[in-house]
Automatic annotation (TrEMBL):
Alphabetized UniProt keyword annotations: DNA recombination, Fimbrium biogenesis, Transcription, Transcription regulation
Keyword Nucleotidyltransferase: no
PROSITE patterns: TYR_RECOMBINASE
This protein's record includes keyword Iron: no
Record-given protein name: Tyrosine-type recombinase/integrase
InterPro entries reported for this sequence: DNA_brk_join_enz, Integrase-like_cat_sf, Integrase_catalytic, Tyrosine_recombinase_XerCD
SUPFAM superfamilies per the UniProt record, alphabetical: DNA breaking-rejoining enzymes
Boundaries of every Tyr recombinase domain copy: 10-186
Annotated family: Belongs to the 'phage' integrase family.
Amino acid sequence: MQLTIDDHERGKDFVTESEHKRLLQGAGQLRNPERNQLLVMMLYRHGLRETEAANLTIQDLQLESARLWVRRIKGGLSTEHPIEGDELRLLRRYLRTRSLNLPWLFVSERGGPLSRHSIIYTIGQAALKADLGHVTPHMLRHGCGYYLANKGYDLRLIQDYLGHRDPKHTARYTRTASVRFTGLWGNKA
């Protein structure tokens, strides 16, 4: 076992933006492609844990205003997130494929809520189709944090978006964000 001095010395445990796109394509090759692509997109875009995704309900959606209520677990702060256009289109396409009288957003083939184990399995299968190797839902959550940090968003915004109560859980994303180092060797007067 390798000992590390700090969290940033861990191996890569996140999905990049380009890997996320490949994962979406892989999910489209599985059974229930609309559901699985939406699952991959929402895990990444909203930094959801697999249990948070499994717990999403139709009532958490406000399609008219393109908003999603994200109920965080583990003592996290729940927040309302915007749903972007491509995600909204995918969401509507998925909703047309299933019975709307069921309360859960992600539904299994048996008509019940998609379990967290099914979510883990689905992400793993999509990763295999995308030739990405081992990918977990939590790697999509971390990918969200790194994506936001690399876009230059501050620690506080990322903390609130991911529902962290303690900023120490968010610091890993901003601390190792490559965008911080851009231009270090340019002409700085």
